Amino acid sequence: MLAGLRVLEIGHFVAAPFCARLLADLGADVIKIEPRTGDPARQWGAMVDGRSLWWSMHGRNKRSVTIDLKSEKGRDLVLQLVAQCDAIVENFRPGQLQRMGLGPDRLREIRPDLIVAHVSGYGQDGPGAGRAAFGVIGEAIGGLRYLTNHAPGVVDLPPVRVGVSIGDSIAGLYAAFGVVAALWQRDRAHGDGKARTIDVALTESILSMMEGMLPEYGALGKIKQPTGGAISTAAPSNAYPSADGEWVLIAANSEPLFASLMRLIGRPELIGAPGYASNPERVANAAQLDHVITQWSRTHDADRLVALLDAADIPNSKAFTAADCATDPQYRARGMVREVPDRHFGTVLQAGMVPHVPESPGTIRWTGPDLGEHNHAVLGELLGLPSSAIHALELEGII
Questions:
Q1: Burial of 231 (0-12, 13-18, 19+ CB in 10 A)
Q2: Which residues form a coiled coil (predicted)?
């Protein structure tokens, strides 16, 4: 769907590269500018023969060009590439590109309608703009890390991490959405042809996901508390243990579903009973209700629990591991889990594209490229540099 769009990525680690990968998955030509030492994310995760399996997916569908941005010739190459691009995505600390001579004003001297997407810890302005941050800090300041824990008093351990770089990824999602929205305003039939700036903060990206946390605090002074596996506004909805040591999530928090679940577990007398007659009553009585359901869930293996709950049409699932995701027939049927050819690994199991667009599906055109793999193709194709000039830049250490 984004074929014909060209995006320059000057990003590292997760947030901006994730944004650019989403755009690339939908067909954009993404040119990733890397230092000659490479994006540090190339060394993340499990390695095979010194190569990151994670990078195979994280860097897919992009063209890698190595440029020394500290050199004048390197910055000149970037400016020449900007002239050929619709948008640029970056996640340096605010002001860093400006200090390099690559600030938005300079870039727009070359490409006046350029869309510039900044992803940073705290945003491009405000008293905290210059502070260092990674995704985990965004999660903390956005309110998420406080909530990813068991209820107060249950454990005396630090609030747990979600398990993935969720702060970076959500910021990347917002940046991608912002880029596409800006391009729509610029390029639609009656577009204005104007440049736009997208300013995404890790902290703000997380805070925007916090549902009723701020309204409840503002009106009632209520500080939202962690609830472990439960939901503070609905019951029953939690993870319940099985006889074989797995966890099965059950969400039966509507009146018909609660009735179906109570009949299934042999407790029909609780349907409409005091303390269970409405969702607010069940929320207030959630601990006892979870105990009742746990007594039943412990009598069946996880697969049997799933079968029983499916037969009653009650939303449920085992807590999937990587192995469960990899073999799930629904994921496989929709191409969300797929075997992708990779010249270094043979094939790599990767996640497919989101969103699904049946009329114009995205494709994995290639997996994460080698460092500087596309130097000659990009500089020759877009800038018209002959091979001798590109070779000279290599000898100088510019690319």
A1: middle
A2: none
